[in-house]
Structure formats: C-alpha cells, structure tokens
From TrEMBL:
CDD domains: SRPBCC_2. The lineage of its organism: Bacteria, Bacillati, Actinomycetota, Actinomycetes, Mycobacteriales. This is Cyclase. It comes from the Bacteria.
Amino acid sequence: MAVQASREIVIEASPEVIMEALADVSTLTAWSPVHKRMEVLDRYDDGRPHHVRATIKIFGMVDKEILEYHWGPDWVVWDAAATFQQHGQHVEYTLTREGLDKTRVRFDITVEPSGPIPEFIVKRASNIVLGTATEGLRERVMGTESARRPT
C-alpha cells in the first residue's frame, strides 16, 4: 500500500533561487540527513540533473535509487524505479510566488514500500522526510541568500 505525505511552507526567497537550490543535487547530502550520496548520471541541455544515483538511509535502512528528474519553471518532479526497499517513489515540489521575495513551497511524496511497515515507523519516517524536504530546504536557501547579500 502506497504511503503519501505532503507539507507546505513559505520561504523568504524567489522561486528562481529555490529552484536553483533544488537543482544543485550535489549539495543535498549537506542539508538532508537521509541523503548519504548523490551522483548525477546525466543532465538536460540546460544543465539540470536528469538521472541521479542516490543512496538514502532512514532508520538504519539503506536504499540505492536511480531518480529520474523532470523540470518546469516552478516545479520539479522525480520518480524512482523499484528497489529492494520500495516498489516505487514519486516526489513533487511545486512553487508559487507570494511576493517579491516570498514563495510557497509544496512538497508531495508517494512511496510504495516493498513490504508492510508498522504505522508508527511510517509516521516517524514521514515526519523526518517532510521536515528535511521543507525546513531543510529553507535552511539551504536562506544560507544561499545570506551568502549572496553584500556585507
């Protein structure tokens, strides 16, 4: 049975800055505790990742995934094929500008585990993933924004 989870936050940055942070998958291991290794296998003509090999670890379970990314002007989607831990995964980030430097970010994830998982583990894992995908992204983006501001 598929597990679905979503979360929205507002980040004090433009959609372009947030999309830039999402496209920089090589830094994901620095702001996401569940991502242990990211390797871009190929890129689109605009330089954004197309296929990425990822090593994920949550609650001691390690999974190696091949992610296929698709990009729009204010969204990114990636899918993972079947692995040892899951039959499939679908992730979406959707960005909506709410002001000059303010963006609503919606994160949606659907995972179909390869076997039954106790509900309490699903809830804990969901909270970790949702927190990383939203608050972790905010910290990454705001760190980027701070680094760009003149002192």
